[in-house]
Amino acid sequence: MSVTPEPIGGGIIVYTSQAHRFGTDAFLLTQFSRYKEKELVCEFGTGCGIIPLLMQKHRPPRHIYALDIQEDAIAQLRRGMEESGVCSITPLTCDLRTLWEGAPLGQADLVICNPPYQPPGTGFEASEPSQRIARHGIFCTPEEVCASAARLLRSGGRLCVCGRPERLPDYICAMRESRLEPKRLQFVCRTAGDAPWLFLLEGRRDGGAFLQMEGNFIMYENGQLTPQAAALYENGGTA
After folding, report:
1. Do residues 80 and 120 make contact, with C-beta atoms less than 8 angstroms apart?
2. Does residue 187 sit within a domain?
């Protein structure tokens, strides 16, 4: 499979391919997570590894476990790590539903996941298996994402996910089923007059019931990136 190096600043390079690429949602989710240097982080469905590599730019977390069920995705992440001189990421080819031997159960501070946006059997299904896995919930439902995150997270630890607004109820319900209380919610809109195209949601392990609504993230104004969107790309999701 042909791969292409994509510099993202700070000496960090992400290797992309037709099967495993990244978009704006990765930058948005990284920033929304508010990750900290001292934290132990796990990412489900890392793909090309854009999120753990973004986290290396300014204030890398203590350590990141980056999971994907597809070996070619993990190979891309490993190559990006080598080219970038990064050693604080552990790439893992495994199923998020079963995790891996030696997983830090009950110890993670943050689990982050940019999951498939469509349920199986809905919308246009790509012919390539890798694209079907990335776009449709073939190997992970909201319930499975939340249940596995709950196994990893310490009490007070956080799960941060993004998705299409029509799937928000699924993730709220799945979080509560796994004792992950929804605590923060933000919508992303292309312009101030548009309906949201993305949600960003944080659930907290054993948290009390209170949901904080954050102001909408607006991407464009008068055909140009808004200052907050421009800062998102300039800072690599760490603003």
Report:
1. no
2. yes
